[in-house]
């Protein structure tokens, strides 16, 4: 063969020596085509290497350096906590501990994936069979995989241990932060109305004044030195840019947003909510941007004093928060554009409340700048306490003035409503006004407590209460606007007649009600998320923790309780349970309002189906609120199950009827053999079903009284439901005429009487049948349909009146079959015989 010379065997390697590719392609003897042979061998080796790499993927290296850096970081944080740290450093340490914990958790997850991959490869090799030899390659691979698995297992355990250590450091920092917060608000100083307080202030005033003068003087000198060097054109540009952004730029942005909303936004609801959000964004960002431009211009020009860096940042932050406070309250009141107002506030009330947003913004600016200045100059504790007392008094005065104004507005509105309704019939308070009254009462109580605390020396507590009330107002206003905006956008975009709704309906064949339901559900989910975020932000600015869980956790340390059966009973625990129950029931009430007013009307369910869903959701919500309350009290699920098992014995003996009615109520709500509005007969009573609960059913009788029937009676006994299968009612008239009467003419008279009655339906058509012949009379059975069983009685009476009048005019005698009465004295002997013929009306 022609290729035989090209296939000469290459020289064999020595025993124990690995085969080298160079040995395979080295020329030996007579070889006419070494290049072809070498190319084939190289291609084979490359293909084998590719297949082997695909079958056995290379494992990423163990991130030992990453785990080591996490361990080093956690050790550094632990050493830093051994020293005294302030709030700013504590926040930084907490952020570092959180980041280290997250890194350790991520490393453990990645290592676990590698560990699982190696475990799969070891499983593919199979177990070692005793006595069966394995190739050296298999033994080497098994050994290498076992070694890698051991290394990964050790690294995973170390990473998880570091994650636990990081979590412990985070909890320690949170505990320290909470303890410091508690110590700060519970610290007591001499009362501001006593001479001791002012004596301490006068003694500390000279040193604090020198600190303030030195701080200001040093900064001014540095600015003057910078101005003497050259023209600070960067600072001038920063000032000009800040002015342009703050004044004409903000107005131009508002006008631009309003014009775009009028021309582009679909629907009035989205326009109003988007306009409010845009006002808040412009009002918040424009002061921040103006402050950043101004301060950055000062820094770029080199005239910004280094010691003023923190103070300048405080000024920018204070300007931004002031803009947020003024714009958020202005967006709620919307005094300049009443037609764009979202909140249900009367024009007169909005005008009366208009001065308070600027005052609130100015007060927030003063508070933030004053606290920042005290920190920058290192003011004494006495000066900070005096400043806190003054600021707390300003807060309480502003809150009190606002409450008085709102109270006068409510009194004027009540007087106007009473005058409109008449002096003899006072107007009933609306639920919204009642809720506002409760909020105002709670605020007055908090205000009185803060003022009392301020007078007896708990200055920080009084300041905290004032700041907390203001923060609730601002946060509540922001959440309200966002919730309205979310609801407007979701309900408008995902509506059956919107562009998106039509596209979904035509493209996917979705029903209009399904699209409406999705919009309502999306709105509800987003609003719940906003509420959760708002609850988490409620106490975070005050250093008390990081959310609702931390706040409830702090309530438990107010007092040490007594453990009974593994459950701690203390005033703090009871207070926490009451708060949790109140919050749960409030959330349930809000959810039920959304369910009944927003979601269920968007479904295809009728009124009875909505009632069933509403009742089941309400009882489930109450059960969840109770379980949440018990869990907050430290009663776990296993204890709840034990309690229920203990109660089952009592239920079996003494609560059988209640349990039976409850289960029967659930059956009625699920199967719906009886619905609200049905006309039913229970025994001898007949009436309309007005309400179905899980225990009983209310039936309104004909005399407008209410019959309360236990649900078990409706399940275990016979009930006549006249409107279950069909809403129609039937009229039946029975009468007889003499045998010699023209029956077709009588039938036509009856049908004409049915046709003349408006309540009788033409479809299905009325009928008149000859039911039989007895004792020389023709028996008629006549029937017609009406719209409802409730209309049958009156329609039947009208038909009978018309029929009697017509038959009398036609000379037709109607009545019943003759009856014979026989009297006998003894068997077989008839004493008297009489026939009694009596005419009677129709049946």
TrEMBL record:
Annotated TM spans: 36-59, 231-249, 276-294, 314-335, 356-374, 386-407, 436-458, 464-486, 518-539, 574-595, 616-635
Keyword hit for Transferase: no
Keyword presence, Nucleotide-binding: no
Compartments (UniProt record): Cell membrane
All copies of domain DUF3772, residue ranges: 156-217
Keywords associated with the record: Cell membrane, Membrane, Transmembrane, Transmembrane helix
Principal location listed in the UniProt entry: membrane
Membrane topology (UniProt): Multi-pass membrane protein
InterPro entries in alphabetical order: DUF3772, LSM_dom_sf, MscS-like_channel, MscS_beta-dom_sf, MscS_channel_2nd, MscS_channel_C_sf, MscS_channel_TM-2
Matches recorded under Pfam families: DUF3772 (PF12607), MS_channel_2nd (PF00924)
Domain Mechanosensitive ion channel MscS: 658-721
Homology family: Belongs to the MscS (TC 1.A.23) family.
Protein name: DUF3772 domain-containing protein
Organism listed in the record: Sphingomonas cynarae
Lineage: Bacteria, Pseudomonadati, Pseudomonadota, Alphaproteobacteria, Sphingomonadales
